[in-house]
Design a protein that fits this description.
The protein contains nine helices and 13 strands. The protein is α+β, with helices and mostly antiparallel strands. The protein folds into two domains: 177 residues, Dna Ligase, domain 1 (2-Layer Sandwich), CATH 3.30.1490; 134 residues, D-amino Acid Aminotransferase, Chain A, domain 1 (2-Layer Sandwich), CATH 3.30.470. A hairpin with a 5-residue loop joins β10 and β11.
Length: 333
C-alpha cells in the first residue's frame, strides 16, 4: 500500500486510509472547493512505524491503564506513549516517500496536521485533540513533525475521550496531512448553522488576523459574526479586543504579534458574506451542518478543512425551513 496519496486520490470513503481530516480534504478538493494542495501520509505509514519499532503492545498496555475518573492516569499513559514514538526510528521507505511527495508539492512551507481514523465523525468530535504544526520548513523538521503527529494520537485528552466513546486502543490509527502553508492575513472558523440556538438559517463566523490557530485553539477572543443565510444579511457583529495574532516566523514555526488597532474588524462585510456562502456550499455538499476552517490570503478565500458539527439538535427533514420559504410552527400534544 502506498505511504503517500495526493488529495486527488482520496475522498470521504477513505477514512481508514487517510483519517477523517485527510478524507474530507480529498472530498472537498474533488468537489472543486478552494482547498490548498497537499498530500496524505496514510495510516499504512503509521502502522509500519509502530511495527518497525515494536510499539503496538506497549501502546495498548499503557492506554489500558487509564481510568476515566483518574485524569493523572491518562497523563501518565500519554507521556509514556509519546516517549516511545520520539525514541523510535522512522523506516527509510517512509521518510523517502514523505520527502518525495514534499518535493512534488513545491511548497517552501507546509502545514502538518494529524488525521485520526476516529476523528471528524458525525457522532463524535475530536477537534483539537491531536497536533497541528504550521509553517514547517526543512526536511528534518517535516519528518519530526510527522512523528509528533503520530504521537499525538495518544494525548491524554484523546485517550480519555476515546475511552468515553468506547473506542478501544487497538482500533485507532492516524494519517498525517501535509498541506501547502497559506500565509493568511485573516482566518478562522465558521459554522453553517448557529450552534448557540440551533438555527439552521444562520451561520456563525469567528475570525482573527493572522494564522487561524489563535481562533481554532481558543487562544484569543475572536471577532464574531452571525449571518442570515437566506437573506445574506449580517444580523450580529461583535468586534473583540484581539489580544494578539499568530504569524509565520522566519525559519519556521509561529510567533505572536500585536495589532496597531486590536478592535479593528478582521473581516469586511463583503468577506463575511463570502465566507458564509462558502460554508453554506460545504453544508449543501455534505447535506449536513459543517464546522469549517478558512483563510484569506492575498485576497483569495481558501477552505482549510471541514468537519461535522456534533453539538446541535438534528431536525426531521419536514421541520427544516427551505430557503425563502415561510417558517412553520410545530406543537406537540
Amino acid at each position: 500500500m502506498a505511504y503517500t496519496l495526493s488529495f486527488h486520490d482520496v475522498d470521504s470513503n477513505d477514512i481508514v486510509l487517510a483519517g477523517g481530516k485527510g478524507a474530507n480534504l480529498g472530498e472537498m478538493t474533488a468537489a472543486g472547493f478552494p482547498v490548498p494542495p497537499g498530500f496524505v501520509l496514510t495510516t499504512a505509514a503509521y502502522a509500519a512505524f509502530v511495527e518497525a519499532n515494536g510499539l503496538q503492545e506497549k501502546i495498548v498496555q499503557a492506554a489500558a491503564s487509564v481510568q476515566i475518573d483518574d485524569p493523572q492516569s491518562s497523563e501518565r499513559a500519554s507521556a509514556t506513549i509519546k516517549a516511545l514514538f520520539l525514541q523510535g526510528a522512522m523506516p527509510p521507505a517512509i521518510a523517502e516517500a514523505v520527502l518525495a511527495a514534499h518535493v512534488d508539492l513545491q511548497a517552501d512551507a507546509v502545514a502538518v496536521r494529524s488525521s485520526a481514523t476516529a476523528e471528524d465523525l458525525q457522532d463524535a468530535s475530536f477537534a483539537g485533540q491531536q497536533e497541528t504544526f504550521l509553517n514547517v520548513q526543512g526536511k528534518e523538521t517535516l519528518l519530526d513533525a510527522v512523528v509528533r503527529c503520530w504521537a499525538s494520537l495518544w494525548t491524554a485528552r484523546a485517550i480519555t475521550y476515546r475511552l468515553k466513546q468506547n473506542i478501544v486502543p487497538d482500533e485507532v490509527s492516524l494519517a498525517v496531512v501535509v498541506q501547502k502553508q497559506i500565509e493568511s492575513e485573516v482566518s478562522g472558523v465558521a459554522f453553517s448553522l448557529n450552534p448557540n440556538n440551533n438555527d439552521y438559517d444562520e451561520a456563525v463566523i469567528n475570525s482573527n488576523f493572522g494564522l487561524g490557530e489563535s481562533v481554532v485553539s481558543g487562544q484569543v477572543t475572536p471577532d464574531s459574526f452571525v449571518v442570515n443565510k437566506v437573506t445574506n444579511q449580517i444580523i450580529e457583529k461583535q468586534l473583540a479586543s484581539k489580544e494578539y495574532v499568530l504569524v509565520s516566523k522566519d525559519g519556521g514555526g509561529m510567533e505572536k504579534s500585536t495589532l496597531a488597532d486590536p478592535n479593528a474588524a478582521s473581516l469586511t462585510d463583503a468577506q463575511v458574506i463570502a465566507v458564509t456562502a462558502l460554508v453554506t456550499k460545504v453544508e449543501a455538499h455534505y447535506k449536513l451542518p459543517r464546522d469549517s476552517e478558512w483563510a484569506y490570503a492575498e485576497g483569495e478565500l481558501y477552505l482549510l478543512q471541514a468537519r461535522p458539527i456534533t453539538t446541535y439538535v438534528p431536525l426531521p427533514e419536514m421541520m427544516i425551513t427551505k430557503p425563502k420559504a415561510p417558517k412553520s410552527i410545530f406543537t406537540w400534544i
